[in-house]
Amino acid sequence: xxxxxxxxxxxxxxxxxxxxxxxxxxxxxxxxxxxxxxxxxxxxxxxxxxxxxxxxxxxxxxxxxxxxxxxxxxxxxxxxxxxxxxxxxxxxxxxxxxxxxxxxxxxxxxxxxxxxxxxxxxxxxxxxxxxxxxxxxxxxx
Amino acid sequence: xxxxxxxxxxxxxxxxxxxxxxxxxxxxxxxxxxxxxxxxxxxxxxxxxxxxxxxxxxxxxxxxxxxxxxxxxxxxxxxxxxxxx
Lengths: 141, 85
Hints:
Largest sheet of chain B: 4 strands, antiparallel
Structural class of chain A: alpha+beta
Order of helices and strands of chain A: HHEEHHHEE
Largest interface: A-B, 23 and 22 residues
Oligomer: heterodimer
Structural class of chain B: alpha+beta
Mean pLDDT of chain A: 80
């Protein structure tokens, strides 16, 4: 119980205020102390547990569509471990194909620990795309 | 370890389908298939020269991380929900 509430109850006990007045004061106190409505921008600080993808669309017939995906970040962390299981010959073949396609990217340099660091920092990610017929939001919670 | 798979399908002009699958009993019932799948994975790891222990460990980590996953798709009056708890 906080101090202000104790004071109100004390005044009620001493007969300085009526029960109705005490109720009004406590209600006003609760209004002042209630947290703001949750939103993406006001997510409480702390380690995020889920990656959320929300897509709202309206097709050409005016039919609404909605996709709501929640993926535990732990699952992403476990998933990046799969990169360590890719056989070296597959990485070499993929590197050759990427190079041929004009993307000189060396997959052998991609280590699970680098990807884990990337996943660890995902909780700071918020992405919003607004189009007239679609809205996409990616965030962590 | 995931405990419960929930599938819900809503279609226009039809009764919605709700299915709750307790995963532990389902895995026990399907254990012969699971054993075969693990054996196939071990053979595949040997063929492609992948560390079997590491591969199985990674697979287990992925399965263990599944609880909390949720896919919710809605289009017009049709909706599909898949959730793992």
